[in-house]
Amino acid sequence: MFISLESLLRLGWSFGKTVVKNRLVKAPQLPRVLAQYGPDGMLSATPGDHETLVAAGRCTHCGRCDVRALETDSFTALGPRGPRAFVQGVSRRPGLDGTVGPEATAERLRDLSRHCPVEVPFVALAALVRRRYDEHRALVAPMVVRAH
Ligand code: SF4
């Protein structure tokens, strides 16, 4: 196999340019990805989302939040199946299955976190679900209209 000197020089030049550019320019890629794939249905991600979802993943199904919600007469504030089901179910597909109503006040959500042994961040989780639900609706509504 013969490789010309010119090809080698061009390859080396391109490799060097890529390495130097990647070292010098640290532009975040996420905005570009979202701009590209947002119109196709990709929902946004903010820097805190990962931390929130990891914290929700610590839920051990202990049910103490359900008990607390029953005590404070707010069992359905995060959905008909209660806060434990909200954390386990809705938070896995935040915003796609529904949103969080106004009865889930910040005070109630903070109270649930205080009674959770692993401190699931209910306030942040509810905010994530609300934000994603609004985005999802904004994306899906025009598609539904177009389909008719
Ligand atoms: S109290 Fe916390 S760990 Fe227990 S079920 Fe509720 S969210 Fe999960």
What does this structure look like?
With 148 residues, the chain is mainly alpha-helical. The protein has one domain (44-147). 58% of the residues lie in helices and 0% in strands. The protein has helices at residues 5-24, 30-37, 49-56, 64-71, 82-88, 106-114, 122-147. Helix 3 (49-56) crosses helix 7. The chain is elongated and about 80 Å long. The termini are far apart. The mean pLDDT is 86. Bound molecules: iron/sulfur cluster. Residues 59-65, 83-84, 87, 116-118, 120 line the site of iron/sulfur cluster.
Which terms summarize this structure?
single chain; 148 residues; mainly alpha; 7 helices; 58% helix; 0% strand; elongated
Give a topology summary.
Layout: H1 5-24, H2 30-37, H3 49-56, H4 64-71, H5 82-88, H6 106-114, H7 122-147
Iron/sulfur cluster is lined by residues 59-65, 83-84, 87, 116-118, 120.
Class based on secondary structure composition and strand pairing: mainly alpha
Total helices: the number is 7
Q: Which quaternary structure do these chains form?
A: single chain
State the separation between the terminal residues, measured CA to CA: 59 Å
Portion of residues within helices: 55-70%
The count of β-strands is 0
Radius of gyration: 23 Å
Order of helical and strand elements: HHHHHHH
Low-pLDDT ranges? none
Q: Describe the biggest sheet?
A: none
Strand % is: under 5%
Q: What is the number of domains?
A: 1
Bound molecules: iron/sulfur cluster
